[in-house]
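Deliverable D5.2: sample structural annotation.
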Amino acid sequence: APAGVSPHIAKLTKSMPGKSGPGFDGENEKVPVKTMLQIAVEDSGRDPEVCQPLMDQMEKIFGADNVSGLCSKVGETFVGNVVCGIPEGLGLLEFPEDDHMGRSQYRGMFDEGMRHGLGVLRWTDGTIYEGEFRENRPRGYGVETYADGGVYSGQFCDDARNGFGVYAFADGRTFAGGWLDSAPHGTGIETIMRSTGEMQEVVATYEDGELVSMEVLTKNNSMQLFADLDEILNYAEGRAKGARLEDLK
């Protein structure tokens, strides 16, 4: 297996010459889905007892089917369901150590070899995205946790914060509103820190990340914003929960 691949996965995969699919060399012998699940749990570092209900549920999804291991020409390693030599359905993908985007691992759904559906993507710096994917990119609703302790819950498009969402900074500040290319854009509710150290909620308007105006929060200027954001936040967190493989069906 390529350098940087998890030793657990390396036991089940090997690069094979000959037939090849889009980006992947020939598939290896199949292994029971329970074995693949045990590998996924070990690699995630989660408590096996906590993960047991998840493993039981995924066994119901796959039944007694076996799954394959693939090694790509760029050092990616896949363990999961394979159709015609490419990932299809549920699987675990590990990226090489020198991945140009700093990604480390993806667990979730695939469609025609692409990350598509619900999934969890991890980066080497500790960033984690949990939610919806479309054609390999975070797109739709999800939750992204950053290395500095910040958390964004809301809408994504083209691997960036786009749409409505809530960003909670590690120091307690928040911005709940519109986003464009990962920068605040439009009107939202912002929690700022006053010179006294106290937090205050205001209605702030941004354009491409630049503050345009700020006013005191009132019932009239915030009621609809709160309603819209609550709906989006609840849906995003629900998608993230599903992406953690707790309700993939």
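Annotation notes: Residues 219-246 form the longest helix (28 residues). Residues 1-23 have pLDDT under 50 and may be disordered.
The annotation will be released with the project's public dataset once the embargo ends.
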